[in-house]
């Protein structure tokens, strides 16, 4: 038994909705990415990006690493960086919950809070790369982000549904999860429908974005998403609370948004098997008003 922490990334549980789904002809499954050691789906991409950068000699233990993140990727990178004895600075919007900041610092990362949101954080990281010789993984354009899900998330879902999945639902932020999983599932069956979740105009939902054109992730390929469902912040918050109360799943707001979309979808289907990504754990939001 020589398993390491890294060996525990992936192979997360797939559990059936016991309460929220009311369509008897549709199976709705939640993929619990909060069960990853770093607490989110981003463990997969962070490990793949760091491992590949080391193997291809893009970085070493003397490298100055920096990454802009809204939270979960930063926690995952901080955790993996600590295992490889790498120094990393993580730049986040100053609205980030204190649990996220404290978790990154606990892993040994330097945390910089930026007043201009994730866009400002991205600009700050780019400036450090261009002017001070830092290395950024740039999750928004790094193919090893989505390829992590092509190699792991997609195959796990296909295996655990025994190839019966008809619809895959995922919130869209950096879009790595939906791009990689879509690529794999479509190779198994063109009939699998890929459903992306975005916020309604004016809604701010952490982890779900409608990017301005200048900041649209370069890894995003619209042809890999069959349908987009929009959800409001109010819907996402209420569904996050219902996930905890009715399904026993404590998750973040983007998971509530994805679940809202999955349930809207379920009501339109005569039959099917939906898999919805629950991207992280809710305990990193307890200081916010999410569960107030």
Quick description:
The chain has 292 residues and is of the alpha/beta class. The protein contains eight helices and ten strands. It has helices at residues 42-55, 72-83, 98-106, 117-132, 143-160, 176-188, 233-247, 253-266, and strands at 14-16, 26-32, 64-68, 87-93, 110-114, 135-136, 167-171, 193-199, 227-231, 272-278.
Question: Your description of this structure?
Answer:
By secondary structure, the protein is an alpha/beta fold. The protein contains 8 helices and 10 strands. The strands form 2 sheets. Strands 1-2-10-7-8-9 form a 6-stranded mixed sheet. Helix 1 (42-55) crosses helix 2, helix 1 crosses helix 5 and helix 2 runs parallel beside helix 3 (98-106). The longest helix is centred in the middle third of the chain and has 18 residues, at 143-160. The N and C termini lie far apart (43 Å). 51% of the residues are buried. The mean pLDDT is 96. It is an enzyme of class 2 (transferase). Belongs to the cysteine synthase/cystathionine beta-synthase family. It holds the Pfam family PALP. It catalyses: O-acetyl-L-serine + hydrogen sulfide = L-cysteine + acetate. Keywords: Amino-acid biosynthesis, Cysteine biosynthesis, Pyridoxal phosphate, Transferase.
């Amino acid at each position: 038994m020589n398993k390491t922490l890294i060996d525990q990334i992936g192979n997360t549980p797939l559990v059936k909705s016991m309460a929220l789904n009311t369509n008897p002809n549709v199976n709705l499954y939640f993929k619990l990415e909060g069960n990853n050691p770093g607490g989110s789906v981003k463990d997969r991409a962070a490990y793949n990006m760091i491992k590949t950068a080391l193997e291809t000699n893009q970085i070493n233990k003397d490298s100055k690493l920096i990454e802009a993140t809204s939270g979960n990727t930063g926690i995952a990178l901080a955790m993996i960086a600590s295992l490889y004895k790498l120094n990393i600075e993580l730049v986040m919007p100053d609205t980030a919950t204190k649990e996220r900041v404290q978790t990154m610092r606990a892993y040994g990362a330097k945390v910089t809070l930026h007043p201009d949101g994730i866009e400002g954080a991205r600009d700050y990281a780019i400036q450090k790369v261009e002017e001070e010789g830092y290395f950024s993984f740039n999750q928004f354009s790094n193919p090893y982000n989505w390829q992590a899900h092509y190699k792991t998330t997609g195959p796990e879902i296909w295996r655990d549904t025994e190839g019966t999945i008809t619809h895959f639902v995922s919130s869209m932020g950096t879009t790595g999860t939906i791009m990689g999983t879509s690529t794999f599932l479509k190779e198994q069956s063109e009939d699998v429908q890929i459903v992306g979740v975005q916020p309604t105009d004016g809604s701010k939902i952490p982890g779900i974005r409608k990017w301005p054109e200048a900041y649209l992730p370069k890894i995003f390929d619209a042809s890999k998403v069959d349908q987009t469902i929009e959800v409001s912040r109010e819907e996402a918050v209420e569904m996050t609370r219902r996930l905890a109360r009715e399904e026993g799943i404590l998750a973040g707001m983007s998971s509530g948004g994805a679940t809202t979309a999955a349930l809207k979808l379920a009501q339109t289907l005569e039959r099917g098997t939906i898999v919805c990504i629950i991207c992280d754990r809710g305990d990193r939001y307890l200081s916010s008003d999410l569960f107030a």
